[in-house]
Amino acid sequence: MTIALPKLTPAQRAVFDAPLQHKLWLEGIAGSGKTSNGIARMLHLLQQGVPAESILLFVPQRSLAQPYREALRGYPGYGGGQLAVHTIGSLSRDMVETFWFLIAERAGFAHPQDLPNFLSLEMVQYFMSRAIETLVAQRDYFKSVRIDRARLYSQIVDNMNKAAMVGFPISEIGTRLQTALGGGVEQAHIYADAQACAMAFRQYCLRRNLLDFSLCIELFSQHVLALPVARDNLRRRFQHLIADNVEEDNPAAHRFLMSLLPNCKSALLICDHDAGFRSFLGADPESADRLRQACDNQVALEGSFVMSEPIAALGAHLSAPLVGEAAAAETDFRTALIAEAHRYHPQMIEWVVDEIGKLVFEKGIKPQEIAVLAPFMSDSLRFSLFESLRRRGLSARSHRPSRALRDEPAARTLLTLARLAHPGWGAVPVQFDLAFALTQTIDGLDLVRAKLLCDVLYRDDGLHPFSGITNTSMQDRITFDIGKRYDQLRDWIATYSQGEPIAALDIFFRRLYSEVLARRGFGFHADVNAGNISRNLVDSARGFRWALDFLRHYDDDIDLARDYVQMVERGLIANFYLRDWIEEAEDSIYIAPAYTFLLSNRAVDVQFWLNISSEGWSSRLFQPLTHPYVLSRGWQTGAVWGEADEQELERQTLRRLTLALTRRCRQAVYLGYSELGESGYESRGLLLETLYTALRRIHTGTAADAKPPPQTPPRRSVSTRPI
Amino acid sequence: MNLPATFVFSAKNLQSYADCPRRFQLRYADRWRPPTMTAAETQGELEYEKRLRQGARLHQLAKLSQQGIPHDLLKAAIQDDKVALWFDELLSSGLHDLPGTRLPEKRLQTSLNGRQLMAKVDLLAFEPGGELVIVDWKTGNYVPDRESLRQRWQTIVYLYVAAKAGAHLVGAPLPAERVRLEYVYLARGGQRVSFAYSPAQMRDDEALLSGLLNEIQNASDFPLTSESRHCRFCAYRVHCERGEAGSLHQVDFDELDEGDDAELDFEQIGEYAF
Questions:
Q1: Structural domains in chain B plus CATH codes
Q2: Of A531, A577, A599, which is closest to B32 when you measure between CB atoms?
Q3: Fewer Cβ atoms within 10 Å of its own Cβ: the N or the C terminal residue of chain A?
Q4: Are B36 and A510 within 8 A, CB to CB?
């Protein structure tokens, strides 16, 4: 069978035709055809009779494997086993689970004869709080840090993950941060506190067979790979390797690939130039570069299948001055750059939506060929865009995985009703929350009438029967029909509250859903989204219960249901849910944070860059307990991170970002600018300055003039962005 | 039928369509996953869940045992008597006469009518150039009659996909007559129900599968089943107003049409932050 492939360039052809036993390194810019080449190579292997399950497709995150999966699905000759798709996380878990009994004791677990419990990210947050909260309170840890607990804990987790990925002991975290960042006595205390908490959490996990991501990576790297039987298992399973976007992966992944390469029958490692966007998740392009030397052949793809000439020039003009180079491109990029200044942020949004309307309705650009990007996508910005687009008859989709479950109306409703049904928790809902829940629960009930119901019938921490309303005009206004359904809900909760409360909160949710909310006349009936959100909440609560069930072997009992609701409302769990990554309609405008767009690995015709004066385009998030570079593999022991490093980092970050975005754009970039930003303040970030510089140079014809590296910009002295 | 581009047909979703086309539509086209109670009462729901987890744990142990982990270590980790009993049964009676090369929890895939069809099997046992045996561990108490089992989509899909896609495993062409399916009922003393395969049966199965895939792809109407027994444990029972939950003693745990119960995993580490 022959494979129908797109026309390959000579360089791509060389990779495609390379003998099967070759180990190839393929590099190039985004849009140069590397992944297409990887797919062609994968199909070529299958065509040569290589079993699919002997091919390991290794990616930094699962979404990057999607083009391969789709190609495989469309390949008529595909039959047999399944292509093995792994990230370092999934592979580590798989191997640790398999070889657990051979490694648990020497790894220091207190119960090596019991099975392990792998923690989801939300459960890590929860157990972190259980492990260290007493310590934090007793010793007054982090007293000078003014960020919420969820963010604080997530930075401790982040430190532990980085230690595991880079390969240094978690006991060195505090010293590394202190030596490199200094910051006086108070800051030294903060690093010491972070160190103590990391050690406490690790001990907590070892005593209870709990495995977070960092511990799993550590076990895989240090213990599983040391077992001959495990190495043999990997050798037998994965005889052919395709690793894409190795620059976005971390040193632990690179170490694993290095160990696998000598035994592979064939390998193709693909690396993107000027990338490594996931640095705060451990991405390390320099570490990835070691793999290049381990390959037999190195191939570089030149050029781009994506960018028009003006877009390529725009990328060159924006990136070059940031590293003190002259832009090589002579082309005037202004034909591909559309901008309009506004005073207020809402005006900018309206302009963006107007321009999108023109593109779609007048110029025939398909909605899915438009991406609206910002450094951060706040709820209000996302909502404004969605609503304005909807009013113009345009649909949009968002790809923002970190939406909190508790912010979803269906989940809020279930949590509010849970509190109402469990007066023993001492956490009855406030009136507004209950009125909101009633609007979601009772079909046809608006907020005004829900408020009226609550005003009259919500007292003494409970709901009273509809017959408690004796005022005829109010009865008529609310209607007896709504009153009847209100009574159904109220009776269900009253009956439940009088009985023994259910320890399994997920089953409380399921019963409430099945016996009331999903019935005809109630708000969740035939509502797919409400059903799915409810299911997500149920799954989250069930995962919580199962993890604590497991813990009962080792710890005292706790009030599961109350603890769960508290944790959700404090933002410690149920903050994100993987299933919500299922994308909405494909033929719609894509709205996302810029980095999310980059990692979706796709190109579009037109990009809108919003809030271009924001410092978020180049600055790091404010993270007082961690640091992606100081805790990276390349950091020199004893070196000090200073203001100059931070500013250099900003320039490099923005350079990579502008290059990466333009390399994923075919026709035009629209710049959304407002003097007053989303929060009502003026800002003047590095992107805005860089754009001015590029425009000035092209206007005065000095584009090709070599310039000295930019001096420290006079715009501000503090380079991190508090959040 | 508006199925997702990446949709793969399986025994589970074909059985779902066969039981109730509406259920198939709501689950796979609309991707609706309502958290409906399976049992009528809380205690029943907890018992049901416990039983499902016991089944899952048995499958996990079976997989580890086939991957070479010493059996005494696995047995020491079992804290549930029922699982311990099943696992003993599996070790003592389920494996001795199977071919030597073992691949636990394998997913085999093939294409039919331009659509992908897959079988996720508990264990594949084979000898290079020899026989290919599919093993499916059953933990239910009820052993259906042979003819009912033969007609189940699981039997049809497993045998057909293995015969069509298993050649590369045995390293040679794989005639249908060298494929066999073994259901092993661990709660019934390891009782086996075995199905041999043949070229004629494979042709019949292909015609049957092909017809069903075409029917689903071309369907515009997905009627609700007229057999209310299929509604007793269905997640859409409330939506379709098809009565209350069934009694747990009616559950055949080997034939449950469970929704996807994927849990969060480490994949999030790399994905949530954006």
A1: 9-271 (3.90.320)
A2: A531
A3: N
A4: yes
What does each C-alpha distance from B257 to A334, B26, B236 come to in angstroms?
59, 14, 12
Banded model confidence at residue B252, pLDDT cuts 50, 70, 90 = low
Query: How do residues B24-54 score in pLDDT, each as one tens digit?
Result: 999 998 889 999 998 888 888 888 888 888 9
B66: chain A residues, CB-CB within 8 Å = none
Q: Where are the alpha helices (DSSP H) in A392-444?
A: 409-421, 431-441
Chain B residues lying within 8 Å of A101, measured CB to CB: 69-70, 73-74, 77
Distance from CA of B61 to the nearest CA of A (A): 10
| pLDDT confidence of residue A383 | 87
> Which of A69, A80, A216 comes nearest B165 by C-beta?
A80
| Residues forming a β-bridge with A85 | A57
Total Cβ atoms within 10 A of residue A6: 10
Model pLDDT for residues A87-122, shown as the tens digit of each residue: 999 999 999 999 999 999 999 999 999 889 998 877
Q: How confident is the model at residue A716 (pLDDT cuts 50, 70, 90)?
A: very low
Reported as half-sphere exposure (CB side, CA atoms, 13 A), residue A519 has a value of: 14
Q: Give DSSP secondary structure letters for A491-522.
A: HHHHHHHHSPPPS-HHHHHHHHIIIIITSTTB
- Rounded to 5 degrees, what are φ and ψ at A610? -95, 160
Find the length of chain A. 723
Asked if A87 has any chain B CB less than 8 Å from its own CB, the reply is yes
Distance CA B91, CA A333 (A): 71
Q: Which residue of A has its CA nearest to B40?
A: A511
The confidence score (pLDDT) of residue A184 equals 83
Each residue of A597-652: pLDDT tens digit?
888 778 999 999 999 999 999 988 778 888 988 999 989 888 999 989 999 999 99
Interchain CB contact of A1 with B (< 8 Å)? no
State the smallest CA–CA distance between residue B141 and chain A in angstroms: 26
Judged by CB atoms closer than 8 Å, whether chains meet at B271 and A578 is answered as yes
Q: Chain-centre distance of CA A248, in angstroms?
A: 14
Statement: residue A432 has pLDDT above 80? yes
Nearest to A161 among B36, B45, B269 (CB): B269
Give the Cα separation of A286 and A293 in Å (integer): 12
Chain B: residue nearest A112 by CA? B77
Give ipTM to 2 decimals: 0.89
Exposure b/e, A609-621, CB count within 10 A at least 16 = b: bbbbbbbbbbbbe
Pairing, β B115-126 against β B132-138: antiparallel
Q: What is the mean pLDDT of residues A511-517?
A: 96
Using the predicted structure, report yes or no on whether residue A202 has a pLDDT greater than 90: yes
Enumerate the β-bridge partners of residue A84. Answer: A56
Q: Could you tell me the two tokens for A544?
A: 């919580």
Contact B266 A90 (CB under 8 A): yes
**Contact assessment for residue A406 and residue A533, using Cβ atoms and an 8 Å cutoff:** no
b vs e for A138-171, b when ≥16 Cβ sit within 10 Å of the residue's Cβ?
eeebbeebebebbbbbbbbbbbbbbbbbbbbebe
